[in-house]
Each structure stands twice: as C-alpha cells, then as structure tokens.
Fold:
Amino acid sequence: PHTYWVRNLSTAREETSGQPDFRMTDIEGLWPSYKLYAMDGIAYLQASPEQGVVREAGKSPWKLAACSPVWRERGRGIHRGRAWRWIPILEAFDAAGRKRGAIASLMVGNASWPNAIWANVSVADPAHALAPEILPTIVATAKAMVRGVFLLDGGAEFFSYRRGEPIVLGANVANVGRSQHNTTVEVMVRDARGAVVHRTRRFLALPGGGSAETSWTWLPENLAPQGYTVTTSLYEAGALLDRIEHRIEPLRTEPARPDEFVRVQGSMFTLGGKPWFFRGINYWPNWIAGYPNLNQ
Structure:
C-alpha cells in the first residue's frame, strides 16, 4: 500500500479557456421538450405500416397520458440529401380514427451523432411502459436496434410525374450495427386497384457500420390518373426488416374540380364534403416545426 499526503490546496480562476458548456445537445425526438407534444383523446394504439419492427396490425385500447415527437421526415423518396430518418413504430389514434402521434418511434442515422440510433417511448409514467399493450413493442424495438439495419430512404425520386417521363426508383440502406447483413431491397408499384405494375429487387451486402444505395429507372407506358402507391421493403433471409410507402401522382393538365378545393363549413375545413385536418403552416411542411435551424 501507498500513503499520499496532500497539503496547501487552493483554487484559482482558469484564464486559458472559456467556461465549460454543460448544455445538452439537441436530440431529435427527445430533447429539448419543444420537440414533443402531448397527445389528446387517445383511444387506441396501432402499428405503423411504414416499419418492420412490429407487424401485428391489431388495435390496442389505450387511455393513458402520452406524448409524441414532432413529426419528422420518414424517408419517403430518394435523392433528398437526408442522412437520417424518423420511424414511427406504434401510433396513437382517437375514437374517430384520427392519428394523434407516435407513442413509440426510432431515429436512425446522422441526426445528432454519426451513424447513431435511439428510440423514444413517450409514456407519461415509466410504469406504463410495462403495460401489455406496449411492452412487446419495446422489446421488439430493442432487438431491431441491436440488429441495426434500416432503410434511410426509399421509393421514387419525385412524387408527381408527367406522362412519358422516366421514374427513378431506389433505396438507401444503413447498417448501424456491428455485424454484416445480406439484405434484399424490393420496390413495388401498385395501381389504384392494388395490381402490381412494376417490381424490382436488388441484393445489398452491408458491412457493420456501412451503408449502400441502389437506384434504377422505370419507364411506364402510361400513367393512370388515379396514381400509384410505391412500397419499398427491406428483407433479410425472407424476413421483413423495414418498409417505406408513399404515393406518386400524374401531373394533370385539366383544371381542378370544385370538390377538390378546401372549403370552410361552419368551424371546420372540408375537402370533398368531409372534415379536413391539416398539419404545417403555409408552404412549410409539418416536419419542419421545432428545428433550431433549417439545414437538416
């Protein structure tokens, strides 16, 4: 053993550097608190269709208090310059079936730190996370985070096209885990009847901490006026890992019909004779809210 004697202790002002900064960095979906909001009138929870963590499609009743992150971009569309993606996993709805937010979600990519991933389970009381309606989702989310393979973006390059215009499709896949994964990307285009009009698969080998991007051009003979649904799926050994879905529409040349305009009836906005609820302000999309800067 050793014995140390210390004496004549004193303090002095540090003159060579500035004061330490103990502020927590912005963490999308978690901090600061203005990046979250309280969800009102929750009636049930249901898995989001644009993810591969939870595949059960049933509704689970839920009346407890919860919050949701302000909605961020979900990887819809390619070649957008995004280095990250927000993934709603378990969404909350009111009794009328209106979406209130996401009680469980993931953030993947370079949102706050390079190649990072974190989850948000925004229950008001930590004990509520043990409820049977949400605990299986938390376990499945933890397993998906350990695996670490997700789509960063996927689908079409644009959301509207002229007839005869080539359509670029593809996906960007990230592996934030430590092990290599051999994956398959599938992009499928369905018409308004649900019939598949285009399908392409690409194999992607992803080393730990790596990523891969693939794209190709689809030349449809014609574009139906009802538009199409583009579904990008990520598989490994036949098991679904992730999914992104969005619409593409043909650009119209004829004037809009009267029922296609948003109107005011009483205290409600309506579209096509039905109540219409909007997110966002003016030309800003809803996912831009709560950013300290706009370079994301």
The radius of gyration is 23 Å. The longest strand covers residues 239-250. The chain has one helix and 18 strands. The chain has a mean pLDDT of 88.
